[in-house]
Amino acid sequence: MKILVTGGAGFIGSHTVVELHQSGFEPVIIDDFSNSEEKVLSRLESIIGKAVVSYSADCNDETALRQIFAKEKFDGVIHFAASKAVGESVEKPLMYYQNNLGSTLAMLKVMQEFGVKSFVFSSSCTVYGQPDVLPVTEETPRQEAASPYGNTKRICEDIIRDVVISKTGLKAISLRYFNPVGAHESAQIGELPRGVPSNLVPYLTQAAAGLREKLTVFGDDYNTPDGTCIRDFIHVVDLAKAHVKALELLAKTEEDNFYDVFNVGTGEGVTVLRLIQTFEQVNNIKLNYAIGPRRAGDIEQIYAQVDKSHNVMGWKAEKTLEESLRDAWRWQQALAADNATV
Fold it and tell me: Would you identify the family this protein belongs to, as annotated (predicted)?
């Protein structure tokens, strides 16, 4: 099966390309490299032993999408391409709505034109907002989004559901990610944010490497064991494997119009301070960090109930927090060795 991976040069997309190849799929990448690097393509080739077909294109560009679909004859799509920083979305909501909704609409429209039926959507636990009960299950009511980013994911889920209801033959799964961390064991690919990282772990590793003066923890007055926010941190390789399982589930689903959602996390909530302390222990590093004010758009705590993913998709997280943080640091060290600029 030939699978289009939008945003396939990005953090999660690149790891998913590897897992698709290892599972017998033929991945093809579309990426506009607005938040990724073209050198990832050669690193993917090094990992999997062959070149990956890739196109430099914006997923909002329907004309470009049609040309690529006409040439490649896809069997399915995994849609990662989106702007993804919570803080930035609060500052630039119009950009987030245009890019995230526009690219999803364009992709679904072109898929329908070319008869491509299988669609895996990169969603987020942000659709739950601040849940009233933890852990969250797929039946947990979605709350008012805490940021424009989270709202784009919620709206995209609704768009996909409505397309399925309209009986176009679409079979789709939304994977609600928790917090991806870590890197490939080869240290050839990992999270490579441009400018100042908006996610915790890459900022943490850059601070540990001396590229940032210190790490700021946003708030220590939350109602949690140590006052810092709680998240469910999942190794990116485990997350990538969930996309393969989702495609396999769609392939064996006989129903013509199908939609479902799955949580993709570890099922364990970890405070920010515990994450920092674990990073220091497993990598034998003392981190320079300070407590700062709360950040707009952040929720207090969230972690997953993942029984449905295990029972229905046959997937569960296998890697530990310690492995995730070792791999993240190994990746940062590889970047330093390559004299990479971040």
Answer: Belongs to the NAD(P)-dependent epimerase/dehydratase family.
Q: Residues 55, 96, 128, 149: which is the catalytic one?
A: 149
Q: What are the E-state strand segments in 110-209?
A: 118-124, 171-177, 179-181
Is the distance from CB of 28 to CB of 250 less than 8 angstroms?
Answer: no
Global pTM reads 0.95
What value does the CA radius of gyration of the chain take, rounded to a whole number of Å? 19
Q: What is the mean pLDDT of each run of 10 residues along the chain (342 residues)?
A: 97 98 98 94 97 97 98 98 89 97 98 98 93 95 89 97 97 97 97 86 95 95 97 98 98 96 98 98 96 87 97 98 98 83 41
Residue 284: count other Cβ atoms within 10 Å of its Cβ.
Answer: 7
- Residues whose CB is less than 8 angstroms from the CB of residue 239 and which lie 6 or more positions away in sequence, other chains included: 12, 15, 16, 177, 180, 264
281 burial via Cβ count (<10 Å: 0-12, 13-18, 19+):
exposed
Catalytic (active site) residue 149: yes
Residue spans per domain, the chain: 2-181+234-265
Count other C-beta atoms under 10 Å from residue 273's C-beta: 18
- Measuring CA to CA, which residue among 329, 214, 217 is closest to residue 272? 217
Cβ atoms 328, 205 nearer than 8 A: yes
User: How far is CA 87 from each of CA 2, 92, 150, 198, rounded to the nearest angstrom?
Assistant: 35, 9, 11, 7
Query: Superfamily for 2-181+234-265?
Result: NAD(P)-binding Rossmann-like Domain (3.40.50.720)
**Strand extents, DSSP E, 151-284:** 171-177, 179-181, 215-218, 230-231, 233-235, 258-264, 270-271
